[in-house]
Amino acid sequence: MTKKAIGIDIGGTGIKGALVNVKKGEIVGERIRVMTPAGGRPDDISRVVAELVKQLTGDRGTLPVGICFPAVVKHGKTMSAANISKEWIGLDAETLFEKALGRHVHIMNDADAAGVAEVKFGAAKKHKGLVFMSTLGTGIGTALFIKGELVPNAELGHLEIDGVDYETKAAYSAMEREGLSFSEWSERLQKYYSTIERLFSPDLIIVGGGISKSYEQFLPLLKLNAPIVPAIKRNNAGILGAAALAFKNRDEN
Ligand code: BGC
Predict the structure, then answer these.
(1) 80: Cβ below 6 Å to ligand 1?
(2) pLDDT (average), residues 206-215
């Protein structure tokens, strides 16, 4: 029997979902993307996710569902909220989604999910050292792995550099908002990843998020000690990792 699960990736801008073959780390069939409801409020998002899951599962109502989210997630609760409604802070999001979907779900931070996909199926497959995963999108998502094991909820996108939360300067959304060229943006990325190196000395740095498909335009401009490489699963990493973790934890309830 093929091992399958549903992966849902909730972002500040869009919500993406797909059926995933969790053995191969591949999307099966259609990947659906819908806009995140304005305001990013819990009830609106959970309704949209329920519709998405319904479209994806069809008659396979028992598949595990993994949902990844742009916040610290501990024991099913969302503990922070950057780029979404503050109503998520302290909310039992797992229960909210379970009620909306009428089934068990597994919820996690989005960068953790993307990192899991890269460690299992992508750029850090079989890597034994310290891996720093990052996603450049609406915010900067980060995840740390040692010998393939995740240290959950690293929130290093919010490092304070030059007196500001540096996500506001170096996320892809900042490049778009300020109309920066790749070379201007890469100066900020240089500052960001150099700070990460100074603090953590990773053995490998992975850059994901939608913009990582254009990695040739900015990664060669960065000078770091560790290799810095694009995410192989690109913008699907969150979906793949969320599905993989949901499948792994499917018997917990
Ligand atoms: C959030 C993180 C999230 C990242 C990417 C940040 O603003 O604090 O939890 O992983 O954005 O979505």
Answers:
(1) yes
(2) 95
